[in-house]
Amino acid sequence: MLAAMACGSYFWLLTGDEAFAMMLSAIDEAMSDVRLETYIFSPSQIGEHFRTALERACARGVRVRVMLDAFGSHSIGDSFWAPVVRAGGEFKRFNPLNFKRWTFRNHRKLLVCDLEKAFIGGFNIASEYEGDGVTRGWRDLGLGMTGPLVKELAASFDTLFDMADRPHRVLTRLRKTALRSRILCPDGDLLLSAPGRGRNAISRALLVDFAEAARIRIVSAYFLPKVRIRRALVRAVRRGVQVQLVLPGRSDVKLAQMASRSFYSRLMRAGVEIYEYQPQILHSKLVVTDSAVYVGSSNLDSRSLHINYELMVRLVLPETIREANAAFEDHLAHSIRVQFEAWRSSRTLWRRVRDRLAYFILARLDPFLMRQQLKNLGSHISRSGAGGTKAA
What we know:
The chain is of the alpha/beta class.
């Protein structure tokens, strides 16, 4: 029934090589507009391939817009984009660096071409993502699509692009509307998150699905969820649900890995299965239950769920869920299960203290700084009234 009602088509991007090839092909085929948004865009060979494709699109009369996070892509200068701008393209940095609002970052990854095809996932445009994630390159995952979700993704891009280089307090005022929402579509939902307190659309949807799931499978590069999600996983195990986590054995952010490991023992004692991916650095973001699959830019950590701008797509199509389970199994095949007794015996006092300190920094200090900056922005808005859009 669900498959018959489906309005779009979906295809998995299982490696960086595959993802970049399909994205570049979509840009070359675009005839009206291209929207490109990413957290990290490095001045690499693959970056040059994308720039050249965007230049060609401009030469065909295609409207090209590029938006990079000012912090994540700080290593690439404006001069890199000069050929695209000269050809008629538009380039913006999201939330230009400022001490008063530095913590709010755009972590989304999105390409939309002609309002007909879109690509989401965890792939940044950088050389470390090239490869198959097993023999070379980071392991990541993405999804391409056609159908009604594409226009919703384009609209979310337009909202951020229009305000990307304006003072962040403008975005803060909108975070409870267009920037923090759940958009319903026939195939599933588009979940958008932005800075703010309380549960956002992603965590709220996850909690509902976890409460009803018969099986839960998660791949997360940075796993540091709030206590509500951890409790939901434990409750699921207690009612007989198999809960499997694939987490990084090798990480590019050691602090995040240490923070995640601070509660391995509690989860495993409750019956959660934890595996660590071995061949390469893990960067995938995937949640699969028996009734839904989540894919996009968000990790299951405090920064993604409460501080960053993120997007996830939640799909309920049986075929897509089946394919997501196959992707999970492939991650699992290259992972080693963490055994509770061996893990507990290896936990020296130094490791426990170190990991708890990492947890404090990422799960407590980082959100605290976010709340302080939100408070300061809110105070400025109250004082400024309608004039609050003036540069800080």
